[in-house]
Every structure is written in structure tokens, then in C-alpha cells.
């Protein structure tokens, strides 16, 4: 099997529509669809390849995988598995981009006693080392001028933000010649490609490079002889039954080329969309697919063989040439009730904590003082890092508000130093509930929303998107850390860093 790994760096924002409907709010995918890469290659090679074009672009023997977010070392993240849950009462299971394995449980296993209100993890991508990636998005309004001023229509695009990096994989079966595969891959070697919607305007430029130092990921050989199988979808999957009808629950594994059997457990979401064909300038037949991140567990009547391993390696279902049907087989992250990340930090058990508490009584005053001081330093660093991360999000909200409301670059807007000082003062000597009341619910709250009168504050009431305000964004972020021990410290750092945003017309940080 041939394989080439691509690095995709977004030079512009890229519009990847989640659904084909034109009415309602536009939503973007959080990955680069493999169909976009296939479309780019087809636009350059379809005529040149002649009779080989069908084998490359339609047979499924050559597969253009989705571009998934990547971290600094080039590791591609995987879609969040839908079988993972967190306790809504206990707070979010990730902080500052790192997942706390102790707050996640796998619903494939027995529900633990400490879970009161389970909540499914749906957003983001997870790495083998426990880092979570949430691709940044932005919304830009546009106006469509049709014929007369009365016909003008306002619309908008949600897009993936520029400067982000993604990793995609192009694979081909053994019966595809090396020369033919090289022709396909060469269209992505150190080139700037254009993908997505509105790529003829300000969207769609992506720098593509071939990563030469990649190795092929193979399906483990130990699946031979097994009668159970867990599949974690790396990409969307389109399934059809024996009559050619689309299905959303593969109750019969033979539809996927696997032995007879049954589903024993599954966590599935799905969507419908009609891919746009730029050559025909029309949409193809609507597809119903299982979403990436879905997890399915099968039990078979007869053991798996090496032939089934080869089927899994090539992907399952239809439209595999567009990157659909890529799966992780028996993933280690889903093997236990809790995820086991590589290089994960050690979590003390109750017994360990009790032993640690007993030993601390015999420590000298100097050691106790230094450990207390180190704890305060660590708390300061964690709180500041949280504020820095939220400040970058706040900068994005400022830019979104400027575009949404048509505010000029030389016009200052948003909360100034006095408003942020009021937020800072609300955190002094108050509990999280008292802080939230002082900021959002009291009669004279610091972040009140309304009109020009004393019932509201224009600086906090400014719209950052359709139906959202800057005050609403801040309230959501504040409530997300209500149960954190450093709640007040986090907000204090955020207010200190955010005071300069209004003084910078372009929302640049100081």
C-alpha cells in the first residue's frame, strides 16, 4: 500500500460547509474534508490521466484522507470519541488544552459511582498524549447584490482561521503503480492550493507540503481469530445495505465487508449533506453519513481473518476516495474505563494522598514554607496561562465584532480600562457565585447589557455574532470555571491583560 502524508498550513481562512442548506446560520467543519483535496487533484489531473482518471478519482483505490488538526511536533489529533463522558457537576474534563484522564469515563464500561450527571464529549480533537485541539473559527458577514438594491441579501460564512496546521494522508492500493501515485502526490508538493467555498475571493489558500519522514500505519495483525471488534471513526462513514439504500446504523456487519454478527454497543451521530461539484456547477446526490468520532462495537459469529484486516486498512463503506470510512481498530485509548495517555501525569490515589499527608507532618518548617510558596507560584502560572488563552479568544471576538458591525479599523470600541477595573473589583474577597452576581445579574452589575440608558452598557452590549454579545461570551467563560479553586485569580489576570484591547484599533495584544 502506498501512502503520503501532507501538511496543510492555512494561509487564508477556509470555508468548509457542514451542510448544504443555504438557509439559516452557516456552520463550518472543524477539519479539511478529503473531498476538497480530491477536487483539487481532479481539477489538475483529470484530463491528463485519461483512462486512469476513473481508477484514481472514482474507484476508491486512491483515497484522499481528511486533514486533521496537528500539534507542534506534527502529531495529528483524532476526533473526540463519543463514548467518552464527563460529570457535568464535577466541571469540564480539560483545562488549558490538556485532558484530565481522571474526569473522563468510557460509557462502554460500567458507569462509575462518582458520576452524577453524565455529559458526552463532542467537540475537539484528542492526541495520544492527552492534548485537546479546538480549531479556531471566525464569522464574516457578506451582502449579495443581485439586481436592485431591494434584492440585496445579507449572509455570512463561518470559516477555519488562518495559520492553523492540518495533517492529511493520501493512500493507494498495491495495484496502483508508483508512477501514477507520484503524479497524484506531486500536485501537493510545496504548492499553494485553493480549496473550500469562495476560493476565488479572500478564502481558500492553503500551503501544502509532503512530509517525507512518515511511516505507514497498519492494522494490528492480532485481530485475526477475534470475535469482537471496536471501531473508532477517524472520518465520516457512508454505509449502504444490500439493496443500496443508505443506513445510519450498521446492524448487519456484512454491509461493511465483515463477518456476520451484531452490534453490542454504539455511540453514533450523523449528518446529511450534498457535495458540490465545481466542474458540473451542481450538487451531487445527498449523502447520509455517520460522524467522525462515532464508536461502534461488533460481536461476530465467526472469527476475523487476515482478509478482514486488509478490508479495514482500506476503509469501510462508500465514497472512500473522498476520505470517508477511515477507522481506528481496537484503539488503546478506548480499551479501559478511563483513557490512558502517553506521558500522562500521575494522579494520586486516596491511599497515596493519605500517606503524603502523614509524611508532611514530619517535614521541617523551611520545607513546608518552600512547598507552600511553590504551590502559590504554580497557581499563579496556571491562572495566567488560562487568562492568556482566553485573551486570544477575546481578541478573536473583538475582530468578529468589528466585522459583524462594520466598525472601521481606526475606531476604538469595546470595554475600556474602567469597565475591566469594575470586573477586577468584583473579584476582591468574593465567592464565585457572588462574583457572577456582581458581573451579570445584580441591578447595577458590571457587565450589564441593554440600550443607551443606565439599564445597559454599550461596550458590553456590542454584538460579536448573530445572537451573541461580548457580555454573553464573558459570562460563558466565567461560569465554565465556577468550581475552580483559582477562580478569582484567573479573572484578575484576564482583566489585567484585557485592559489594552480597546486602545488598539485592530485588537492587537500588548
Would you summarize the structure shown here?
By secondary structure, this protein is an alpha+beta fold. The protein has three domains: 2-211, Alpha-Beta Plaits; 221-334, Immunoglobulin-like (Sandwich); 378-498. The protein is 27% helix and 22% strand.
Description:
The structure is a single chain. With 510 residues, this protein is an alpha+beta fold. It has 3 domains: 2-211, Alpha-Beta Plaits; 221-334, Immunoglobulin-like; 378-498. Helices cover 27% and strands 22% of the residues. The chain contains 11 helices and 28 strands. It has helices at 34-49, 52-57, 178-186, 306-313, 350-360, 365-405, 417-426, 432-441, 458-461, 470-480, 487-498; strands at 2-10, 62-64, 68-69, 78-79, 84-87, 94-95, 98-99, 104-106, 118-120, 125-126, 132-133, 137-144, 153-160, 165-172, 191-194, 205-211, 228-233, 239-240, 246-247, 261-267, 270-273, 276-277, 282-283, 287-290, 295-300, 327-329, 463-465, 468-469. Strands 1, 2, 3, 14, 15 and 16 form a 6-stranded antiparallel beta sheet that branches. Strands 20-25-17-26 form a 4-stranded antiparallel beta sheet, with no helix packed on it. Strand 18 (239-240) and strand 19 form a beta hairpin. Helix 6 (365-405) packs across helix 11 and helix 7 (417-426) packs antiparallel against helix 11 (487-498). The longest helix is centred in the last third of the chain and has 41 residues, at 365-405. The protein is globular, with a radius of gyration of 26 Å. Mean pLDDT is 80; it is low at 344-363, 452-456 and 505-510.
Amino acid at each position: 500500500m502506498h501512502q503520503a502524508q501532507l501538511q496543510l498550513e492555512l494561509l487564508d481562512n477556509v470555508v468548509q460547509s457542514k451542510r448544504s442548506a443555504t438557509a439559516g446560520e452557516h456552520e463550518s467543519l472543524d477539519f479539511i474534508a478529503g473531498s476538497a483535496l480530491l477536487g483539487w487533484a481532479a481539477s489538475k489531473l483529470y484530463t491528463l490521466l485519461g483512462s486512469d482518471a476513473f481508477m484514481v478519482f472514482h474507484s476508491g483505490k486512491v483515497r484522499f484522507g481528511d486533514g486533521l488538526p496537528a500539534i507542534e511536533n506534527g502529531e495529528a489529533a483524532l476526533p473526540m470519541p463519543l463514548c467518552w463522558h464527563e460529570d457535568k457537576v464535577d466541571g469540564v474534563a480539560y483545562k488549558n488544552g490538556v485532558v484530565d484522564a481522571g474526569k473522563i469515563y468510557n460509557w462502554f464500561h460500567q458507569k462509575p459511582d462518582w458520576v452524577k450527571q453524565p455529559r458526552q464529549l463532542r467537540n475537539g480533537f484528542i492526541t495520544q498524549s492527552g492534548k485537546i485541539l479546538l480549531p479556531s473559527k471566525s464569522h464574516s458577514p457578506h451582502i449579495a447584490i443581485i439586481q436592485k438594491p431591494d434584492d440585496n441579501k445579507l449572509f455570512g460564512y463561518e470559516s477555519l482561521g488562518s495559520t492553523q496546521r492540518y495533517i492529511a494522508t493520501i493512500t493507494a492500493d498495491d495495484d496502483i503503480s508508483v508512477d501514477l501515485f507520484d503524479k497524484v502526490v506531486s500536485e501537493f508538493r510545496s504548492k499553494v492550493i485553493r480549496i473550500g467555498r469562495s476560493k476565488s475571493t479572500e478564502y481558500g489558500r492553503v500551503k501544502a507540503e509532503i512530509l517525507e519522514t512518515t511511516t505507514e500505519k497498519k492494522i494490528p495483525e492480532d485481530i485475526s481469530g477475534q470475535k469482537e471488534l471496536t471501531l473508532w471513526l477517524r472520518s465520516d462513514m457512508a454505509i449502504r445495505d444490500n439493496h443500496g439504500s443508505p443506513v445510519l446504523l450498521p446492524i448487519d456487519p456484512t454491509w461493511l465487508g465483515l463477518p456476520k454478527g451484531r452490534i453490542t454497543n454504539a455511540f453514533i451521530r450523523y449528518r446529511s449533506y450534498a457535495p458540490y461539484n465545481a466542474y458540473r456547477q451542481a450538487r451531487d446526490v445527498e449523502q447520509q453519513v455517520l460522524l467522525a468520532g462515532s464508536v461502534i462495537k461488533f460481536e461476530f459469529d465467526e472469527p476475523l481473518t487476515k482478509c478482514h484486516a486488509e478490508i479495514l486498512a482500506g476503509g469501510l463503506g462508500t465514497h472512500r476516495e473522498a476520505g470517508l470510512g477511515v477507522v481506528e481498530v481496537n484503539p488503546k485509548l478506548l480499551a479501559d474505563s478511563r483513557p490512558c495517555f502517553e506521558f500522562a501525569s500521575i494522579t494520586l490515589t486516596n491511599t497515596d494522598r493519605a500517606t503524603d499527608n502523614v509524611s508532611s507532618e514530619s517535614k521541617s518548617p523551611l520545607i513546608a514554607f518552600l512547598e507552600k510558596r511553590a504551590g502559590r507560584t504554580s497557581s499563579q502560572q496556571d491562572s495566567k496561562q488560562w487568562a492568556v488563552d482566553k485573551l486570544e479568544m477575546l481578541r478573536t471576538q473583538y475582530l468578529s465584532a468589528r466585522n459583524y458591525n462594520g466598525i472601521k479599523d481606526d475606531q476604538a470600541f469595546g470595554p475600556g480600562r474602567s469597565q475591566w477595573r469594575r470586573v477586577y473589583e468584583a473579584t476582591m474577597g468574593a465567592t464565585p457565585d457572588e462574583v457572577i452576581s456582581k458581573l451579570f445579574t445584580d441591578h447595577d452589575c458590571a457587565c450589564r447589557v441593554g440600550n443607551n440608558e443606565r439599564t445597559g452598557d454599550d461596550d458590553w452590549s456590542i454584538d460579536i455574532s448573530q445572537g451573541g454579545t461580548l457580555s454573553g461570551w464573558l459570562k460563558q467563560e466565567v461560569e465554565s470555571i465556577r468550581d475552580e479553586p483559582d477562580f478569582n485569580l484567573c479573572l484578575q489576570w484576564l482583566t489585567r491583560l484585557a485592559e489594552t484591547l480597546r486602545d488598539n484599533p485592530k485588537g492587537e495584544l500588548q
